[in-house]
Amino acid sequence: MGPIILAIVAIVLGAAIRGLGPALGKPGAAGSTRLVGYGFMGAGILLAVANTVTVVSVGEVGVQHFLGTIAPTPLQQGIHFINPLADIEKMSTREQSFPSDGSVERIDAQTSEQLNVALEVSLLYRIDPVNAPDLYQRIGSEDEIKSRIVLNAIRNGVRDAVATKSINEIFSPNRRELATEMKQAIQAKAGDRIEVLDVFVRDVQAPPLVRQAIEEKLQREQNVAAERFQTEIIQERAQQAIEEAKGIAEAQKIISAGLTPAYLTFHYIEQLAKLPAGSVVYVPTEGGMPLMRPVGGGIR
User: Fold this and answer.
1) Count of CA atoms in the C-beta half-sphere (13 A) of 223
2) What whole-number distance in Å separates Cα of residue 22 and Cα of residue 17?
3) Quick check: helix, strand or coil at residue 1?
4) Where in the chain are the domains?
5) What are the tens digits of pLDDT across the range 142-197?
6) pLDDT greater than 50 at residue 229
7) What is the average pLDDT across 199-228?
8) How far is CA 33 from CA 12, 23, 46, in A?
9) Neighbours of 20 (CB within 10 A)
């Protein structure tokens, strides 16, 4: 409303200066005074006309209000003709982070075992442009929405989500699941006033004794996993040895089936031919009396 008041003042002042010219009684002074008056009046009119037009930029929504009355229809991005006496409150409809400076919100909460933990959380949200007039009516400007809605929703939502989790679940590697439940809890606290897009859990800290117990538990789990891995290696090697023994036994069975008396006699004679001259060979007999016979040098 400030510009329109300035425009009215300029028009009134210009009219007063224009009317003051004839009262001066000087022809030259009257003309100059009239010219100055017309200048003020023209400037006031231009300012008043300009105040009937507003531009809502890309990624914004406008809320028109005048003397405590808020227009129920939001002004979407673009050029709009409005009541020159009305004010326009503009809000961003783009994705916004909270905290807005890129830092994190540190929140103290209790787990289902009543253990205190400190979480560093950030939030990605946006304002629904359709709800902008109602938000401005109930809460106020965009800064007030951040301090009264976003901040309270993230604090209470995180505490509600953590209260249903055990300390082991809070410190589990799968923080995406925890962040999803926080998002749902924060959205429930915020209602339809804002749209929660995503929640990021940056860090989780526990009291020193709890952290030490968790680290010891994780170390034990790692040791158990390492021992289980070694056991699997031993079992695999034992299985390989069993399969190798089965293969040897199968090979021996095949060889034994082929060692007939005729084949052994043939192999015996064949080897005698390969012995060097002067070799002595033990020759079994049916009577059990062993014979010693020199052989070798090839068969003649």
Assistant:
1) 6
2) 10
3) coil
4) 2-90, 96-206, 207-258, 262-295
5) 888 888 888 899 999 999 988 988 887 887 777 788 888 899 999 998 888 889 99
6) yes
7) 81
8) 14, 10, 20
9) 15
How distant, in Å, are the alpha carbons of 168, 267, 269, 278, 285 from that of 281?
Answer: 80, 14, 11, 10, 13
Q: What residues does 123 pair with on adjacent strands?
A: 98, 199
Instruction: Give the C-alpha separation, 75 to 78, whole Å.
Output: 8
**Which architecture characterizes domain 96-206 according to CATH?**
2-Layer Sandwich (3.30)
H helix runs in the chain, sequence order: 2-20, 27-50, 132-138, 142-145, 151-163, 167-170, 175-190, 208-258, 261-272
Helices (H), 57-96: none
**DSSP 8-class letter at 82:** -
For 285-298, give the DSSP string: -TTS--EEEEE-S-
| Residue-level length of the chain | 300
**Full DSSP string of 197-233:** EEEEEEEEE--HHHHHHHHHHHHHHHHHHHHHHHHHH
**Token pair in block for residue 35:** 């010219």
> What pLDDT digit, counting tens, does each position of 37-81 carry?
667 667 766 766 666 778 888 888 888 888 888 888 888 888 888
